[in-house]
Amino acid sequence: AQFNYFHQLLRLAAINPLAAIPALARAKIDLIASDWAARVFDFLLAAQWQPREIFHICAGPQNALPIGELFELSFDLLGLAERRPKILTQEEFNANASLILSTASRRHMWQNLTRFLPHMNVDQTFECARVTKAIAGRSHLELPDSKSLFRDALSYCMATNWNQYSSGQLSTTA
């Protein structure tokens, strides 16, 4: 039900005029559902809590989605596979920036993306071996598949026009 910067970034994908974006295709983003995190937190607090113990409630490196795969899934689900921007290294992007940002609309999009793009150049994963061990055998706490979770979240965003139904601002465009 919460639409944060990540969801809004996905919304921008539908209108993205950029042919390329600087990112590390292999860098991973750790995606989890807040309801799953809450269940795990509740369990850990009740059953595993010890002073000075740290548990990373996350998907972990083995389940996080690479940026390249995230782009592919996003643009496929949006029905815009042919408009998927090419992923370039920062150096490649810089060398071609004048061509990539050659119009006012592209420069405007670039200004909007500069807050988000640094995240796509950093592997954003945490080790979660302690959580994995603690929840092992508890089917109600199994980590959801990150790809399915992402697919479901983006499908929900699209179905609700990024939450426009609940705010009374029904629109037929994404």
Strand order of the largest sheet: 1-4
Terminal-residue CA separation:
17 Å
Shape: elongated
Question: What letter string, H or E per element, gives the SSE order?
Answer: HEEHEHEHHHH
Annotation field: number of helices = 7
What portion of residues belong to β-strands? 5-15%
Describe the structure.
There is one protein chain. By secondary structure, the protein is mostly helical. 44% of the residues lie in helices and 6% in strands. It has helices spanning 5-13, 34-47, 67-77, 90-100, 104-113, 129-135, 146-159, and strands spanning 20-22, 28-29, 65-66, 86-88. A two-stranded parallel sheet has the order 1-4. Strands 2-3 form a two-stranded antiparallel sheet. Helix 3 runs parallel beside helix 7.
Question: In brief, what are we looking at here?
Answer:
By secondary structure, the protein is mainly alpha-helical.
Write the layout of secondary structure elements.
Elements (H helix, E strand, L loop, with lengths): L4 H9 L6 E3 L5 E2 L4 H14 L17 E2 H11 L8 E3 L1 H11 L3 H10 L15 H7 L10 H14 L15
Parallel strand pairs: 1-4
Antiparallel strand pairs: 2-3
Helix pairs in contact: 3-7
Descriptive keywords:
disordered C terminus
